[in-house]
Amino acid sequence: MKIIVTSIFVNDQEKALKFYTETLGFAIKHDVPVGEFRWIALVSPNHPDGTELILEPNNHPAAEEYQKRLYEDGIPVTMFGVEDVNKEYERLLKLGVNFAVEPKEAGGVTLAIFDDTCGNYLQIIQQ
After folding, report:
1. Residues 6 or more apart in contact with residue 6 via CB below 8 angstroms
2. Closest listed residue to residue 59, CA positions, set 115, 119, 122, 6
3. In whole angstroms, what is the distance from residue 115 CA to residue 121 CA?
4. What's the alpha-carbon Rg for the chain, to the nearest Å?
5. Are 122 and 82 in contact (CB under 8 A)?
6. Backbone angles phi, psi at 121, to 5 degrees
7. Does domain 69-127 have CATH number 2.170.190.11?
8. What is the band of 19 on the pLDDT scale with cuts at 50, 70, 90?
9. Residues 85-106: pLDDT tens digits?
10. N or C: which end of the chain has fewer CB within 10 A?
11. What is the pTM of this model?
């Protein structure tokens, strides 16, 4: 068994698509209209057949509340691995990304937490 798809609730799919592709650098694998929303699946450009990240609309009250509460408590919804957290931090800062936690050492890893502009905190981690 392996993880093939995971999702993140977003409050604006178009804004999220722009942030996750243009700022973070993910590639679009699928972008298919589904009623009033879209099935947007992103992948790492280095692993086009790897795990897909779905930008899921938070149109259900439970999803909206879940997203809101995690954000209010400063809890990242997921983490992305990077080769060098400090280098990625500097790159993202230059692109205007707002960080809640600057790079720091924690339990043998280096991490940083930032706002995705769509209702979530994300964590980058260097192992």
Report:
1. 51, 52, 53, 54, 78
2. 119
3. 5
4. 15
5. no
6. -100, 140
7. no
8. very high
9. 999 999 999 999 999 999 999 9
10. N
11. 0.94
* The residue type at 43: V
Q: Compute the distance between CA of residue 44 and CA of residue 59 in angstroms, rounded to an integer.
A: 26
Fold adopted by 1-59: 2,3-Dihydroxybiphenyl 1,2-Dioxygenase; domain 1 (3.10.180)
CA distance 85 to 101: 12
DSSP 66: H
> CA–CA separation, 49 vs 47, rounded Å?
5
| Residue boundaries of the structural domains of the chain | 1-59, 69-127
